[in-house]
Amino acid sequence: MADNRVVVVRRGHEPLKGEWSIPGGVLEIGETLRAGAAREALEETGLVVEAGEVLEVLDRIVRDAEGRIQFHYVLVDFLCRPTAGDLRAGGDAEETRWITGSELESFPIADSAAVVLRKGLEKTGNGH
Is residue 105 annotated as part of the catalytic site, yes or no? Predict the structure, then answer.
């Protein structure tokens, strides 16, 4: 989050391939949550970030066509502030973009992600 803007990424791999989302990924063994969030942000966006307070904790359970559980993720979203770097797509992100709070209203992103992004904007005093 910076200057009333948030970073979003278009996923390059499943799950959610081709969809816009919040940067993130899987922890490495022994990695703390904040360190993992910062590493994933750097890999996917090229931005060095400081992972601050927790904005949201939620489960994402993805089922296959027969209704069997295919994936079960526990997502922890942090308020991150960029400290260095230039925005560019990397890792499993095929595209990155800064969007403003007003652009978020009509941006093609899951409602659950939009809620988290709005919370971040409100925490930084940039919500409307």
Answer: no
